[in-house]
Amino acid sequence: MCTSIVSNRGSTLVGWNLDILDMEYRVTVLEEYLSIDIHDNGQWLPLFGANGRGEFINMPTCWPYDRRSDPLGPYERTLPQTNMDLLLGRTTFQEVRQYLGQGRICSLPGVTYQAQLSDREGNVLQIVPGQGYAYKERPRYSVMTNFSPFKGRSEEHPWMGWDRYQTAVKMLEEAGDGLDVPGCFAILKATAQTVCPTVVSMVFDPGENRVCWCEDRRWDRIEEHTLKWPEPDKEEIT
């Protein structure tokens, strides 16, 4: 279970609750990016976070599972690998759009992951492998929990997070154009979970490259970091 929000009233703000159960994680803070890494098969995978290029990457599980998201061939790119490449700067937001247009992004066998990616301008890519994708040019706001935006409530599942989605939308509407970082954290607090616990809550201001986060719903212990991105090599430009 997770909650992702992107708001473009005034400045762009991105909010993210990572809800996981029985999984080991860590927060990695570097100059170019801040990631939430998941320990899997002996390695740490940077699957969520923000980079100094102004992009935010996340990957909620989509319920119920849809077998159309399974890989069809070796030519495809998995969503976890695509997200990691974007977070680490190995690919770009526009290149991800190209992969989607070519139908080349899948999930992992037996699980349907989805994503709500955003860039510095607040443009949004919603991705559900096997079901489709949507590019939203600087929407007023965009919310994703754990159900497919292409199915809505046509299929019910106890983990789909419809209540969290409705709560986030209502609070975003009420916040108006004055939404700020504390207001974004208030939405994350209202949608935080305890059964499948919220382990990291994060707010990203891409205009300032500022990331604020707290762990284990300790809302009075918010940390902050400013990201940087390497300047392009002048020789490469010429």
Residue windows where pLDDT falls under 50 for at least 5 positions: none
Profile the largest sheet: 6 strands, antiparallel
Content of β-strand = 25-35%
How many helices does DSSP assign? 5
Helix-strand category? alpha+beta
Shape: globular
How would you describe this protein?
With 238 residues, the chain is α+β, with helices and mostly antiparallel strands. It is 19% helix and 32% strand. The chain has helices spanning 79-87, 93-101, 162-175, 181-190, 234-237, and strands spanning 2-7, 13-19, 25-29, 33-40, 43-51, 56-57, 77-78, 105-106, 115-118, 124-128, 132-136, 141-144, 198-205, 210-215, 223-226. The strands form 4 sheets. Strands 12-1-2-13-14-15 form a 6-stranded antiparallel sheet, with helices on one face. The protein has a 4-stranded antiparallel sheet with strand order 3-4-5-6. Strand 9 and strand 10 form a beta hairpin. It is globular, with a radius of gyration of 17 Å. 41% of the residues are buried. The mean pLDDT is 94.
Please name the defining characteristics of this protein.
single chain; 238 residues; alpha+beta; six-stranded antiparallel β-sheet; four-stranded antiparallel β-sheet; 5 helices; 15 strands; globular
Short description, anyone?
With 238 residues, the chain is α+β, with helices and mostly antiparallel strands. The chain contains five helices and 15 strands.
